[in-house]
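Figure 2 data, in text form.
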Amino acid sequence: MITDVHAHLLMPDLQAEVERRDPAGVAAAAELEMVRQGEESLRASAAMIGSRFAALTDLETRLSRMDSQGVDRQWVSPSPNHYYPWADEELAVWAACEANRHIAEHVADAPDRLTGLGLVPLQQPQALVHCLEDAVSTRSLAGVEVSSFAGDVELSDERLEPFWSRAEELGAVVFLHPFGCSLDERLDRYYLSNTVGQPVENAVALSHMIFAGVLDRHPRLKLIVAHGGGYLPAAVGRSDRAWRVRPEAQVCAHPPSTYLRRIWFDTVVHDAAALRGLVGAVGADRVLMGSDYPFDMGTDDPVSLVTEAGLDDDVREGILAGNAAALMRDGGDRTGAVRPTREVGA
């Protein structure tokens, strides 16, 4: 069953209600996006969303496009504009749970074709376990999508430890997908906010998790990283060097490169040579086909990118189907029973 693990759903009703509840927050977020992306990119993105609105929202359009791509199953996660990283706890929790509801309803209409991933409000660490359980235990979603950072919360933050623990216990997928880049106005032209910003954010967030020992404390975490992990897999030798020679970089137990083989990565790298390099860096069993459907920075024909990359037959088949199936078979406790969380460093 050929599986696309990276596809999105836009939820206009959710967006409208967030705008109604906190118009000042939405306006401030729009101003920040102007700083980060620039007027030209925002205008082009608005036109792109308009032209692909049906693909982002309509089930039959999604299924038809999957058929034309040769995709049997698609993992659907919220469009990252629904993160709302500026929202206070009440709004953030409501929005995340509403996103979970929308995703669950969307995939329920085609359960043999679609798998859902929900949301948690990263900027509200105290609410993450509640929203994770809403997604997985209440809505029967496969996991949740998270950004690379939110406000002062990095993925190395100790306040996230109960979330990582509960994700492990549930066997929940955590899909790391950035939205926005902390380099701000340095990337406000030529669409650098995406072409450079997204790979940077993936590399920074993943490095936070690795160097802080998150994967030492949570070895069964099902972490999938969008966009092939950004710049980190190709440059992880520099991280290994820092781990060997810099005392402040030696928090994790092993060289950073070894952790890449505990993580899964999608194929949204846009280049056959880059895909082969990713397979070499992280292992053939750790790469999953993705498309970033239906955005313009996605891959229009994700199956062909894999089949034409010159990979061995077993590697190709694993990326297209087997690796995702194996990841989902390795389930966790999905009973929803709340268990004690670990102390930091346990």
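Caption note: The two ends are 38 Å apart (CA to CA).
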